[in-house]
Amino acid sequence: MPQKSSARSMIVHPIPPTFDKESQILILGSFPSVKSREMMYFYGHPQNRFWKVMAALYETPVPMTVPERHDFLITHHIAAWDVIHSCEIIGSSDSSIRNVVANDLSVILDTAPIRQIYVNGKKAAEHYQRYTQEKVHRAAICLPSTSPANAAWSLERLTEAWRVILSP
Questions:
Q1: Judging by DSSP bridges, how do beta strands 84-89 and 140-143 pair with one another?
Q2: pLDDT digits 0-9 by tens, 110-165
Q3: 59: exposed, middle or buried (C-beta count within 10 Å: 0-12, 13-18, 19+)?
Q4: DSSP readout, the chain?
Q5: What is the DSSP pairing of strand 98-102 with strand 116-120?
Q6: Looking at the whole model, is its pTM more than 0.90?
Q7: Cα–Cα distance for residue pair 19/63, rounded to 1 Å
Q8: Structural domain boundaries of the chain?
Q9: Domain 4-163 in this protein, CATH class
């Protein structure tokens, strides 16, 4: 019998997108980590640097709670979701993702004046290009992953690369 940590299971994305009618940029991850699924919000793993990068870019304190994170995104006109609606995945491992069904981004794109779509890391970019780009007829800009697995990038280097989201 396989150990629970190595078992691949089909999981449906449990977190609704964050956006409103004033969201101008859309940031997409691949699929929420185990910690994010437990927290029921994006980038919930304590070592993920997404919230630290966002706080540095906007020169604010790092939002710590789900309501603070939600309010941060809405205040800064950022929509957030993931490329994948459901998939088979082992734990939080993007490399283990199989049998992908993409999220329908029209729920955001038909509501908000999104000027640019960004993807958080190469795996999100890969899934976006494969399953979504042709449907929405919009390219996405790939930013370096804020995941702790991307240890080669320091917080400072990530923040500098992510600065592009501030451009009008």
A1: unpaired
A2: 999 999 999 999 999 999 999 999 999 999 999 999 999 899 999 999 999 999 99
A3: exposed
A4: ---GGG--EEEE--S--B--TT--EEEEESS--HHHHHHTSTT-STT--HHHHHHHHHT-PPP-SHHHHHHHHHHTTEEEEESEEEEEESTT-GGG-EEEEE--THHHHTTS---EEEEESHHHHHHHHHHTHHHHT--EEEE---STT-TTS-HHHHHHHHGGGG--
A5: unpaired
A6: yes
A7: 17
A8: 4-163
A9: alpha beta
Q: What is the average pLDDT across 72-96? A: 93
CA distances in angstroms from 29 to 3, 6, 11, 19, 60, listed in the order given: 27, 22, 16, 15, 22
Query: What are 62's two structure tokens?
Result: 């790092």
The length of the chain in residues reads: 168
pLDDT tens-digit readout, 52-61: 999 999 999 9
Residue bearing tokens 């966002």: 54
- In the structure encoding, which two tokens stand for residue 48, read together? 């993920």
Pairing of strands 9-12, 84-89: antiparallel
